[in-house]
Design goal:
By secondary structure, the chain is mainly alpha-helical. The chain has 14 helices and 4 strands.
Length: 315
């Protein structure tokens, strides 16, 4: 886990060299997307369950927290906790029937759920504000601790992300994590070894939804405005791309993938008319030359450097 301490130190010190707050905003979004990607890495990479509806859980966390803090009048801290709890309940209700499906059937079921939520965000105008969006969401404050400055909120997001990563690492190296990997390889073999397939699938599905809801609630209180367009099918696909590009079974890879996909469009803004084409081309080339993701590419590069250094040392 030394790399996690290194990541924490790196993320905490990067703002010291940033020229302005715009880059800090990009970093905050990177961390929020990384929370989603870490949860999906557990679900897709380790348990082998494909979900195309996680943008819906992200949106549910955002809208629930916004509604409870703005309309109901709860404090922001309690609103966020309630939003995450509500998402956990909803994801369990969705997961109970849909996780009986496998492969692309499960993907289609979660896609349908995501689309239903997206339509609800748009059509329930009295609750969500409809297509015009939800405005007037209070800034993040937790039990008397006001996070009015972006740098304070960024540090809070980094801490939450690192806690999620620490929990995920402990999970995948536990007996539960080994059961999930066995489930990914062969459900029948895992069942023969005594793994409770249904409960393990449901647990990791709810956990990944909770990560997305926490990210969504922070997102809502950071921007103080949310709209349905941010939680549609396109964002669900982006989250899957982050996990696949980073490395399906690698949590550090999922974080790198989230940062890469979030930051890349910022670099491509200079190529105004062809930025989408360049974005797609970079993704294709990345997957062609790094089929096991950025994490796998880095491991091969590190092994190559180590082999060259060892060869040079022996003359």
């Amino acid at each position: 886990m030394r790399w996690l301490a290194g990541l924490f130190f790196l993320l905490m010190t990067v703002p010291l060299i940033l020229p302005n707050n715009y880059y800090l905003t990009v970093l905050i979004l990177c961390c929020l997307h990384a929370m989603n990607a870490v949860g999906l890495c557990l679900l897709v990479g380790h348990a082998g369950q494909i979900s195309l509806g996680h943008a819906g859980f992200h949106g549910l966390g955002a809208y629930a927290s916004a509604y409870l803090s703005t309309t109901v009048g709860l404090s922001v801290g309690w609103s966020m906790l309630a939003a995450v709890g509500l998402t956990a309940v909803v994801s369990a209700l969705v997961g109970l029937p849909s996780l009986k499906l496998k492969g692309h059937y499960l993907a289609m079921a979660t896609l349908g759920f995501g689309i239903i939520l997206s339509i609800l965000f748009t059509e329930t105008v009295d609750i969500t504000g409809g297509p015009a969006g939800f405005v007037g969401i209070p800034r993040l404050s937790l039990f008397g601790w006001e996070l009015t400055r972006d740098i304070a909120l960024y540090r809070f997001v980094v801490v939450i992300l690192c806690v999620m990563v620490w929990l995920s690492f402990n999970l995948i190296h536990s007996r539960l994590g080994r059961a999930l990997r066995a489930l990914h390889t062969s459900e029948k073999a895992a069942q023969a070894m005594g793994v409770d397939i249904a409960n393990h699938k449901l647990f990791v599905f709810v956990l990944s939804a909770v990560f997305s809801a926490a990210s969504g609630s922070i997102y809502a209180h950071y921007l103080t405005f949310i709209a349905p367009a941010s939680f549609g099918f396109t964002f669900s696909v982006e989250l899957i791309v982050m996990v696949v590009l980073g490395g399906m079974v690698s949590i550090p890879g999922a974080i790198v993938g989230a940062f890469f996909i979030t930051v890349l469009p910022e670099f491509l803004r200079a190529f105004e008319n062809v930025e989408i084409l360049l974005f797609g081309l970079i993704l294709i080339l990345s997957m062609m030359f790094m089929p096991d993701g950025l994490a796998g590419g880095w491991n091969r590069l590190w092994a190559w450097i180590a082999a060259r250094a060892k060869g040079a040392a022996h003359g």
